[in-house]
Write a structure and sequence with these properties.
The chain has 71 residues and is mostly beta strands. 0% of the residues lie in helices and 39% in strands. The strands form two sheets. The protein has a two-stranded antiparallel sheet with strand order 1-2. A two-stranded antiparallel sheet has the order 3-4. It starts with a strand and ends in an 8-residue tail after the last strand.
């Protein structure tokens, strides 16, 4: 990490995996769903930053049937 404006900034080396939680509506129908979007990021070192970049993602998520809870 390095400091910027008095705050520590987390840094990463090599490959980074980003995990995003998804919320599913309680009444969503189970099954596959197409998911696509754009992730925007900017790589920096302690002394300089590269131009921001965008990467599109495209994939399928599967909504599982709701699990009954006992009370």
């Amino acid at each position: 990490s390095f400091a910027l404006a008095g705050r520590a900034i987390a840094t990463f080396e090599s490959a980074v995996e980003v995990v995003l939680p998804l919320e599913v509506a309680p009444d969503a129908t189970p099954g596959p769903r197409h998911l696509r979007g754009t992730a925007r990021y900017q790589a920096c070192t302690a002394t300089r930053c590269l131009f921001p970049e965008s990467r599109e993602f495209d994939g399928t998520v599967v909504i599982a049937p709701a699990v009954a809870t006992s009370r």
